Amino acid sequence: MSTAQPPTQPSAPEADPTTTPHEPLDLAGIGIGPFNLSLAALAHGVPGLRTAFYEQRPAFHWHPGLLIDGATVQVPFLADLVTLADPASPWSFLSYLKARERLFPFYVAERFHIERTEYDAYCRWVSEQLPGLHFGHRIDAVRWDHDHELFEIDFSRLGPDGEAVAPGRAHARHLVLGVGTEPHVPETLRPLADAPNVPVLHSADYLEHRERLLHTGHITVVGSGQSGAEVFLDLLRNRPLGAEGLHWLARTPSFAPMEYSKLGLEQFSPDYTRYFHALPEAVRDQLLPGQWQLYKGIAHETITAIHHELYRRAQHGGGWPGAVLTPGVTVRTAGRIAAARLELHLEHVHQGTRTRHTTEAVVLATGYRERRVDTLLAALDPYIRRDSSERPRVDDRHRLVLDPLITGSVHVQNAERHTHGVGTPDLGLAAWRSAVILNSLSAEPVYPLPSRTAFTTFGLQPTGPGAQVSGRMHLPDQRTARAHART
């Protein structure tokens, strides 16, 4: 349905970020990461829809501390900002390649998974040309204006130093929160990570400290996911042969590969998302921890590369490399024992054993947590309906469940794993979720979406539009079920 054309200017003109109650925005976005950038790109193709998106950072950047040379995105390039909802969009990755005159080299390269640096450059290309994006604008408060039935948004325009230079206000019928996640540091290691001049850092800041780490005598990486594996591999490849001085710790029972079978990947489909959302809250909470290998495992290619590098070093070094990999371990406590030494108190979960581990630097590949928006939404808090664990309830259109007194919608992006499952942070569902949000704002769907997206039928009852259970399936009555239970 694409009607929008990318502008020919090098960057989009800065529009007025303020609005009045008499000419409100249809949709205001808070945060400009990949998910809200996807929404902004697809919204650009909807005639008459007034949108604006606000971001406090001065420009788009996607995990800059982990743009390690050669690291790839774990989803195919088709999982760009728009393609899986609108393949003809001018904001697709292929459109980016065409604009950069790299379409034919990409075709010859036959690459299905692109490097992270290229994905970041693609998103920045979109962000620099797409109108209605306001970087350097911090949202300070959000309120509901009962008189005008609009959201009232206070923001501050930030200067080059990050300090507020001018206030502003916008009004919108609907909101979407895409504030992203923030690095998670375990409580046992937080005092060290927060202390000045202590070499304990999150993997989100890895590249900033990489050169210093490479000249450190001994480094410990904590975390068993893809980020931990990539950091460990990069350090391993760049340490002296026979004097690697590396230790990799993980809580998981093994350094496990990510579930990447074709039917396994269908759990990142809209069909599974609808199925998961329809499950009872207690069942959803029980399912999520057991699905860790779907999104916390390591890519097969990365595991292979690590083993290959270890074997190469063993072959050329004449002995086992100075790198230790230990899964099944938790860090109980940590502290400093000298000016340049750190001590981690470890416990092996299955052995029940404990030991002390000394190192000179720690890289925490301990994941991310949803960024809290309590202060931002403080004025809306009385209207937000919550579940039994005090988490916001989110409906099947990614809207917070609000008191009926608020007639506008607050959509959330990457803040609904507890209601929508493992696909919530996955880039492959970005375009589909953006289309769902835009469709919910219109009387008629602006982006027609498929009624079925997976070969797997999740559950015995249909959970989505057009879903059906194929074939004949006889469900036992209560007497038959009791008889089977007894036998």
Describe it for me?
The chain has 487 residues and is an alpha/beta fold. The protein is built from 14 helices and 17 strands. It has helices at 34-43, 93-99, 103-109, 116-129, 190-194, 206-214, 226-237, 270-278, 281-287, 292-295, 300-317, 417-420, 430-440, 478-486, and strands at 25-30, 51-55, 133-135, 137-145, 150-158, 164-177, 181-183, 200-202, 219-222, 246-249, 323-326, 329-338, 341-348, 354-359, 361-364, 368-370, 410-412. Strands 1, 2, 3, 4, 5, 6 and 17 form a seven-stranded mixed beta sheet that branches. A five-stranded parallel beta sheet has the order 8-15-9-10-11. Helix 1 (34-43) crosses helix 13 (430-440) and helix 7 (226-237) runs parallel beside helix 11 (300-317). It is globular, with a radius of gyration of 25 Å. The termini are far apart. Residues 7-13 and 469-487 have low confidence and may be disordered.
